[in-house]
């Protein structure tokens, strides 16, 4: 589908989702409204972050920023009903695509056993043409590969020694902020929680200064734009990839 096409409703016949992203705040720039919608329905959503976002605040050394951003992410996730947040300690800003990352993500998928995996855009650009960054691209591509790795007992065989049996139950990967969005979730009832979730990243937003803009307006305007392609109201879009 093209960027201006009508969006379809996301599948609803699942119980467990796992969001895998590179940094604190990645889920909050758009996808957390959908997470709040899902958790309000009683579905389980967990977060796995490849890094602690320690390179994300220009005026704060990574040794200070990492623990602070970790705390902000835990509070941010709680605002949308997520109480499981894991950090994998890959180095923020220089996350490399490769076997170590794929192994860590495959292990996480085996631990959480999701039916739906949510991730951030892995393509070269965002909707509107803004250039994507390497961490997002690398973690996204590794996530797609790790879904298959998690299903194959003969890939990363040491995971079996840890009691992590293959998981073949991932039915879809949903890519947030994709320029090739196909599906959407109605978030009119959860947009306030999505805004609160983003605002929990106080130190990060303060570090951005004027570049942060108004998070409330940003999320509402983006949701309204997506909603116009989804029957009106407010919505969050995804590129849905069947597995």
Automatic annotation (TrEMBL):
InterPro entries: GlcNAc_PI_deacetylase-related (IPR003737), LmbE-like_dom_sf (IPR024078). SUPFAM superfamilies: LmbE-like. GO terms for molecular function: hydrolase activity, acting on carbon-nitrogen (but not peptide) bonds, in linear amides. One of its GO terms (biological process) is glycoside metabolic process. Pfam families: PIG-L. Signal peptide: none annotated. Keywords: Zinc. PANTHER family: LMBE FAMILY PROTEIN (PTHR12993:SF28), N-ACETYLGLUCOSAMINYL-PHOSPHATIDYLINOSITOL DE-N-ACETYLASE-RELATED (PTHR12993). This is Putative LmbE-like protein. It comes from Saccharomonospora marina XMU15.
């Amino acid at each position: 589908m093209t960027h201006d096409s009508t969006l379809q409703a996301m599948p609803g016949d699942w119980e467990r989702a796992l969001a895998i992203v590179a940094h604190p705040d990645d889920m909050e720039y758009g996808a957390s409204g959908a997470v709040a919608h899902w958790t309000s329905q009683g579905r389980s959503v967990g977060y796995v972050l490849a890094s602690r976002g320690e390179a994300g605040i220009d005026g704060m050394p990574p040794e200070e920023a990492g623990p602070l951003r970790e705390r902000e992410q835990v509070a941010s996730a709680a605002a949308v009903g997520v109480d499981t947040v894991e950090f994998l300690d890959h180095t923020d800003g220089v996350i490399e695509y490769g076997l170590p990352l794929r192994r860590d993500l495959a292990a996480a998928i085996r631990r959480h056993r999701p039916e739906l995996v949510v991730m951030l855009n892995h393509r070269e650009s965002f909707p509107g043409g803004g250039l994507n960054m390497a961490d997002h691209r690398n973690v996204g591509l590794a996530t797609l590969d790790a879904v298959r790795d998690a299903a194959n007992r003969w890939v990363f065989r040491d995971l079996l020694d840890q009691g992590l049996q293959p998981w073949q139950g991932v039915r879809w990967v949903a890519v947030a902020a994709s320029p090739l969005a196909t599906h959407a979730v109605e978030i009119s009832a959860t947009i306030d929680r999505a805004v609160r979730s983003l605002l929990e990243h106080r130190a990060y937003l303060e570090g951005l200064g004027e570049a942060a803009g108004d998070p409330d307006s940003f999320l509402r305007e983006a949701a309204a734009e997506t909603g116009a392609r989804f029957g009106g109201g407010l919505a969050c879009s995804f590129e849905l990839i069947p597995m």
